[in-house]
Fold this sequence. Notes:
The structure holds 2 protein chains of 2 kinds. By secondary structure, chain A is of the alpha+beta class. Chain A has 2 domains: 1-49; 67-186, Ctag/Cox11 (Pfam 04442), CATH 2.60.370.10. Chain A is 28% helix and 34% strand. Chain A is built from 3 helices and 9 strands, in the order ααβββββββββα. Chain A has helices spanning 8-49, 54-58, 184-190; strands at residues 73-80, 87-91, 95-98, 104-112, 118-127, 135-140, 146-148, 153-162, 172-181. In chain A, the strands form 2 sheets. Chain A has a 5-stranded mixed sheet, covered by helices on one side. A 4-stranded antiparallel sheet of chain A has the order 2-4-8-6, with no helix packed on it. Chain A is elongated, with a radius of gyration of 27 Å. Chain B is mainly alpha-helical. Chain B is built from 16 helices and no strands. The two termini of chain B are 14 Å apart. At the A-B interface, helix 1, strand 5, strand 9 and helix 3 of A face helix 1, helix 6, helix 7 and helix 8 of B.
Amino acid sequence: MPVAEPTQDEAMQQQSNRSLTKKLWWFVVGAFAFGWALVPLYDVLCSVTGYGSKKELLVAAHAAERIDMNRWVNVEFISSVPTVGEWDFGPEQTEIKVHPGQLYEATFHAKNLRAQPVVAQAIPSIAPNPATQYFRKTDCFCFTPQKFEANQQRELKVRFFVDPSLPPNIDRVTLGYAIFDVPQTQVAYVN
Amino acid sequence: MSASHTHDTHAAGHDDHGPMKGWRRWFYATNHKDIGSMYLIFSLVMFLTGGAMAMVIRAELLKPGMQFVDPGFFNSMTTMHALIMVFGAVMPAFTGLANWMIPLQVGAPDMALPRMNNLSFWILPFAFSLLLLTLLVPGGSPAGGWTLYPPLVLQTGDAFPMAIFAVHLMGASSIMGAINVIVTIMNMRAPGMTLLKMPLFVWTWLITAYLLIAVMPVLAGAVTMLLTDHYFGTSFFNAAGGGDPVMFQHIFWFFGHPEVYIMILPAFGVVSEIIPTFSRKPLFGYDAMVYATASIAFLSFIVWAHHMFTTGMPLVGEMFFMLSTMLIAIPTGVKVFNWTATMWKGSISFETPMLFSLSFLFLFTIGGFSGLMLAIAPADFQYHDTYFVVAHFHYVLVPGAIFSLMAATYYWLPKWTGHMYNEKLGKLHFWLSTIFVNVLFFPQHFLGLAGMPRRIPDYSTQFADWNFVSSIGGFCFGLTQLLFVYNIVSCVRGGVKASDKVWDDATPHGLEWTVSSPAPYHSFEVPPEVK
């Protein structure tokens, strides 16, 4: 069966199909790149708006300006572990009463239940959400990764104060920590 | 016209290659009709597979307490049901319709890129074999929900990389299908068919195809990040390494919200073809329909975070996403009113495709309204992750997308096969489907408002009655679909001969009705002239 040579019209058609297809593939490549660009963009957006910024959460003010002795705020401590059986992790005291502006220290205990050493990172979260920016940690075990030997138990400290400008309607703040294993590839870097 | 002259001289070289024999016809297929049929059959098989999984879910939820499956497997079923229905049933079915109908509706001899067309179809059986094989591996199928949220999804067993690669393959297939659609529509239209003369099904698919190539690569990026977090120690979504799991939700829904319009815009196109035919009037407000579709597509990119109101967004973010979401109701309302106005004073007849389209019109609108309720940020804190959400998206996807696919099947089946389907059986299928889809999903609104969470295998006894009703509706709806399969199979095998025009439409619109029934293997080798 003889195959007909493409006519001029058909050749032109194929040419324009190819060129549009090429453009569309570039569009796809661009969309794929955009998906990855969302990762740094997300951080940029967080730092521009200041919302959820790691800086806000980690850097505490130098010292309290004034201590409000007339006000009491309940600070609760909670903990969670992602996988049952790997950690024994919790606060030494579940709740303390604090004066805004005064420095306090709380202790958590953590035990690595596994038979091998592990590097862990505690991630803080504060509830209710509007209280986050008024809860100042001056030093915290969550600032750095923590190394645990097999079955080692350690006490972990956090020093904090509550900013006196905490909105008056908030009388109870919960500080929670979740403890995670640092991925193996980053452990070398930590050490 | 010179084009017709050049065609006459070389048509001789083309005229006698009909379909190849045996399996080669399908494996080496480059004909848009063959590939379209394969897509449609594939999606029907996946619809029944995903449907069977839904039956497992409804059987477990028939009564409170654990009856048939363990909770892990139950979660696998909800996850797999969603992945299969979204990527295996609805999307390939619309791509199948696009393959069959777009060349016929724009007067092109075939799709622009026939070999890529072959590849984009044949990837799919591999993708879904990979996904279904996860049922057999240690740790079971993915069970963290189709949204694949980390860190939960990272706990998937050996199935994890299989599911990710399956999603990659599905994405590659849809991207190639979409590129093919765009090139066909932009370059292969018959002389005289300007963009604003194209049938609405073609228009909605053109816009859908652009959505696909814009967001499927973003999904591919997001699941690749999951893969590297799991195996290569990166921390995109790992808080301990400086990442943020909420970021996954942002990236996922940047894909996910346009994705829901990918599943519904072609449905709008189908309904915009069928309602004018059976109202015997041209579509009311054609231009407005085109612009409304484009507006919906644009808005779909700026509303994604309404899926994540409860992640603790700033108030200004909640306001923005709430209001932009509500804005979508305007172009959607334009569409609903235009369809209604098309029927106004029309001489309407109620064949099966029209019945399914009317049911689409009513029930999709219910899904749209419950969507508006969910868009209200303060209210969403109550509805989030409850059965109200399940009811909402099933109303827009089942009597929405799926009913439009059934309408399209009945509408164009005579053109594809050359036979009329059994009208009585079609109507029976319609009535049973419409009744039972409501028995199935309407009570889920009540369950959600009363606080029943989604993705749970067992529930508090206060939810027992409506779950029982919903399950009965589910089983009946599932069984009803066997009528659909039977009707299609018997229509392919034989039946009353269909005329070229097929439907008794006073003002036939669309070039597909100018070719014979069944549509010849090669059509429009000489481009038709559109006035």
